Structure formats: C-alpha cells, structure tokens
Prior knowledge:
- The protein is built from five helices and nine strands, in the order E-E-H-H-E-E-E-H-E-H-E-E-E-H.
- By secondary structure, it is an alpha/beta fold.
- The chain has a domain at 11-111.
- Strands 2-6-7-1-8-9 form a six-stranded mixed β-sheet, with helices on one face.
- Helix 1 (21-27) crosses helix 3 and helix 3 runs parallel beside helix 4 (94-100).
- It is globular.
Amino acid sequence: MITIYKDKKDIPKNIEYVELNDVFFNQTTVNKLDSKAKTIVKKIHDSELDGKYKIKSKFNGVTLDVDCLSTGCKTVLNVKYFPDKVFCLKECGDNALEVLYGLDDGAVYSDYAVIPFDMNSVKVSDEKGTRVITDYEELKEWWNNEK
C-alpha cells in the first residue's frame, strides 16, 4: 500500500521528494516502461501503450508520444517505478487516484486531502508516526484535522 505524507517535514531526509512529475517522468521513468506500464495506462486512459514511447489513443486510434499522458498517469507510473521516492499527488485526477491508491508500494505527498471515493488501505505518516487507515472519512479527518 502507498504511504501518504501531508507535511513535507515528515518526509524522511534520506528520501527524495519529487514535485514536478512531468519532468521526472519525461527524463527518467519513460526509460523503464514495460508491461506494468501497459496495465496502468489502460486503466487510467483506456489507451494502449504501443511500443516503448508511443500510446494509441482511445480517440480514433491516433498514435501519440507518451509525453502526452496526463500528469496524473505520469505520477502513478513514477510511484510504481520509483517506490523509494515521494511524489507530489496534487495533479492527479480521479481516474489516476483510484489506480494510485491501489498500488502495492510507493509514497506521495499533498498538504490537502486528495482521496478517491473507492479507496482501500493506505499508510499515513506524520509527526506521530505511521499507521494504516482503511476508511475514506477517517483519512479525510486525518488530512484535515491533525495538522
């Protein structure tokens, strides 16, 4: 499950924080794309990864470069391929959030609540430590009230 940070000071100093998901994806993650990426792109955009650097759009089957993926999709791919870093999740839409919250591993940051309605378990980390939350309302309360 993913770990969520709501305050940058709670991110361990030995873990890199990435604010610009588009830039990180275009410079680093794009080189790691494989069958795991195909599944994620299909779930988020209902599009097909066509080779390593192209996607076949669901709109008229147009072929586009992977840099045309949404920032939310790029964020999910960044988290999937680099679970040892913390990524900003503020630009994720609902379609990407649902996939992101279902990942087995990874870490994200936002100082305000960004939660899909259909969530399972997540780890939250703050000055009090790390714990698991399994409920939407409980996660929303943690994000909003425990600053």
